[in-house]
Amino acid sequence: MNKQSILKEFFLNEELVEEVFNLYFDDLCRFLGYYTRDRELIEDCLQDIFVKLWEDRATLSIFHIKTYLYKSSRNRMLNVLRAQNSRLLREEIWATEEMSRTYAQECVNMEEFALFYNEAVEALPEKCKMIYQYCKDAHKSYKQVAEELQLSVKTIEGQMSIAYRKIKSHIIYKYQISDPGSLLLLLTMQGAIWAV
């Protein structure tokens, strides 16, 4: 019996698939152990490989089953680990932002903050203040504001950049802080500053 007929029989016989699973399972577990020590994750990946192998048996063209199993299990494991790392990174970023936000809210008197913020807006040059309030209060895009005020989008961007910088500087000066990270996060959360 040649390899092709063995593989055809393999794809028609569920017991043979189970036999191959049992034959390669321990070796594949050791192989995937180089990528992670999480035995449960390894077993889940291998189970997925064999289930997919069985489900796609009509469309697969495999010449060496061992090579296919090793390559598929490695690729599956790498995809799972990439997804886990991405999720962990997102969770870490979220946790850091939550801690900063909580710290900022606990450390800043909101009435005092509102007072300093309003002072900063009032201290803006007249044109800059008008454009800032127009964008912020009306929640319009720079393009919309530029069209309505018959100015270029670059002018709006420049004036908004000036407003952000002056408001941020004023509030940092009022609070006399050397590390403004949590305060800037609070400003962003309050909608006072959309970009730094």
UniProtKB/TrEMBL annotation:
One Gene Ontology molecular-function label: sigma factor activity
Segments forming domain RNA polymerase sigma factor 70 region 4 type: 119-166
Organism: Sphingobacterium paucimobilis HER1398
One Pfam entry name: Sigma70_r2
Classification via NCBIfam families: sigma70-ECF
Family recorded in the similarity comment: Belongs to the sigma-70 factor family. ECF subfamily.
Annotated protein name in UniProt: HTH luxR-type domain-containing protein
GO terms for biological process, alphabetical: DNA-templated transcription initiation
Keyword Transcription regulation (UniProt): yes
Keyword tags: Sigma factor, Transcription, Transcription regulation
RNA polymerase sigma-70 region domain boundaries: 22-85
Domain of life of the organism encoding this protein: Bacteria
